[in-house]
Amino acid sequence: MSSGAPRLPLWEFFHSGELQNVSQHKAYCLACVAQLRPAGVPLSVEHYMGIDAEAVKEEAWFTDACNELEAKDYGMVRGAKDPMISHLVGKKNKCPYATDRAREVAIELRDGNSAPKASGAGKRKAGAAADNEPKRIATQSRVEQFIQPKLQTFKGIDIPFNKAQISAIQDQCLRATVSANLPFRWIEDPEVIALFLMFRSAACDALPSRKVLSDRLLDKAADEAEAATNEALHGQNVTLSTDGWKDVSKNAVASVNLAVAGESFLVDVLRTNGDGKDGPSMAKAFEQMIDKAEEKYKCRVVKLTTDNDGGARAGREKVGEDRKWVLTDPCMAHQGQLILGDYLKENPKAAEAGDQASDVVGWLWNHQRVREVFDISQREANKSEKALSYLVGNTTRWTTHMVAFHRLVDLKDVLQRAVYTHRDDIIAAHIGAEKGKKKKAEMERAARSACRTILDSAFWDELELAANDLEPIAYMTNINQTDATRPDQVVLSFAGVWIFFSKHALLHVRRGMMKRIEKRWKELDQATYIFALILNPYEQLDRFGDKAELDVLTLNLELIALYRRCNSRPLPASYTQEQRDGHMRDMASTEKRVCEAFLEYCADKGIWAKFRAGQEVFMSVHGTDPVAVWRQMTAHATVRDLADFAIMLLQLTSHQGGNERVFSDMGIKKTKLRNRLGLKKLEKMCKVGAHLRREHMKHGLVEKRTGRKNHKESRVEQLLAVPRYAEALDGDILAASGDTNGTGEDSESVRKSTLVTSSAAWRREVARWKAAEDETDDEEDAQETSDSSRRSKSFFPRSLALLFGGAAKRPANPAAQTAGSTADKPRSTRWSKEQLYMELLAAEWDGEEPDDGALEGSGDEYEE
């Protein structure tokens, strides 16, 4: 260091050059100079950064390095305190090579400088006196030794927070803001500040500002949530689902979720306003989502789930063709809505009854004075019953029409009694204070029309039949939108609803629905679902009928084909030919072990014989979860490969429930009052909120929400005739408008109900279902020829009639029987007169005695 340079502690880290002005030298950062040192130059480690400035300042490389730093205007600063501190710990252009000790000295000098900045002559005077600074400091230190210290004391709530406490308080403010869905400005509200002051007078010193809350603290919490997501997904076989949504700003938003073991994680939110919606564009977008997720989270995307719109469907199918190892399927929760549209097309009378029921529900729900008249009639008849407004109001909280129709049928006696006794009061309450003759007459006609509908017995009969037919469809929808539902339960739901309609009393409904359900089933990747059912140790082949023709050897070949397909990912380009040959040999030996393990599994031999012997004990501890069984089997080398494959199949997610919950959460966070909330910040808030809810559930801070019972226990046993199907959900069925994964995560979400309350809205719903069906028909007809020509002969696809149409086989093991089974109860048949006459003619031909009551209604029911 130059002898004339100021003796600041910072000069230990700088080289003093020529005078830059009257009193200040050029200061060259030794850390920056060291980066320009030529290779092979010996340096002493005893000096800062290995450079002895006094020893090497005359060398050519040192001079060249200083000149280069001066030319770059980086690493050379003015030899004053502030510029040197700014170079080491400044916010902009901070030296990346400075050591921790250099930064500590700079921070101490910066924080200890509380004197006001001088200007003009004061600066020059301060620079001239810099040489005497150590002496002044020593003198001041000596003087302070003889001064009596003044102790500052704090009492009770006035004790200030330390740095650790302030950091914890600020982090908790962000967690509370996201968890309670508060705007970031709440922290600066005067009443909130007054509240914290009442708690503790020093609280405001620790509270962050709105900007700090929405920037630094939110970024920190989002990084923690991302780290937890990365830990949960690392090395897992996951299902990628994506769906679209429009926010209040009319932005097209797409969410990307990864699901594993019944738990969904939001990983990305994209703005798709200008993106193409055709098949190739959607396929490219899906592939980018898959590549990004696998690279970022080090997981394996084994399945892609989207909705069945035109572009999404074409893109999904193209991804399945280009990447054979990715299983592709439409959302199973949407299949129930599509089958509902199929039923309304096949049964126009049910659609008409639904139209009238929607008018009645809308009329009751939209006119408060009318409901009050019904309530009065209800209390007059039976004071113990609940008010009609409560019962009708509850119908709007379900998104399945079946529940609303059943609830309306339950209210039949109440409604009819009120109309009989208080018709004039109802009409007067509907008209209210309206004075216009034309409007008054129109309102009177509407009220009388609703009253006539309520008194019409034919309407109630059709509505009850429609509600009974819609119940298995609603049951299937509720099952398939639950996060805990496995692929084997999905195939059972399809089989159950097919069997239900195969026994329908109306021939045209029976034939039409069987055909349409088969069509829906044909679109799925059947091998995935069938083998998920077979690899359930509590099911195996017991669910299939005698027409299924499922022999073990054929299933073994199909299983190896599916296993080979799921493991057909291309090897890295860096692999040598020897490595590729070794990989092929390993795959061949693995497939052989899978074959042998599958044959033992089907025959209940080897380790499976021991499992069957202690199955009841295992079920008493782990329940009927098949994944728990296969996890135990991974400890055995001969079964490990098949166990890993079975766990992967059984943990696949088949719906977009995670995406729907994300959109519900976004709809709450971004409202018309907060429409300036950016997409990236909204994504961080959703990730943090989901992470907090998982933590709350893990630590038991929230009560687990129980599912609503939309179906009567006696009715559930008769809904679907597949054995033990009533236990497909392992508990109560969750309503579509409630918590779809049983965790209570979306209990605060506000969703728009799909229950329509007018005939016009009902017709729009029916038209939408028909339009979606027609679009699907056109696409399938266009692809049928090409698909059939290039499809190789295979065991799949296989119709539900072949798989489940025959006589159901009884469970082969006693434990499966003890788990409970539902007998195949045929539905009561309605006979027409022509059929009964044919029966009588046949009986007469065979010489049997005729039944005199056959045509009098004493036997089976009949219809005209």
From TrEMBL:
Biased composition range(s): Basic and acidic residues: 824-833
InterPro entries for the chain: RNaseH-like_sf (IPR012337)
Region described as Disordered: spans on this chain: 109-135, 736-755, 769-793, 806-864
Ranges of biased composition (kind: Acidic residues): 774-784, 845-864
Protein name according to UniProt: Uncharacterized protein
Species whose genome carries this gene: Auricularia subglabra (strain TFB-10046 / SS5)
Upper taxonomic lineage: Eukaryota, Fungi, Dikarya, Basidiomycota, Agaricomycotina
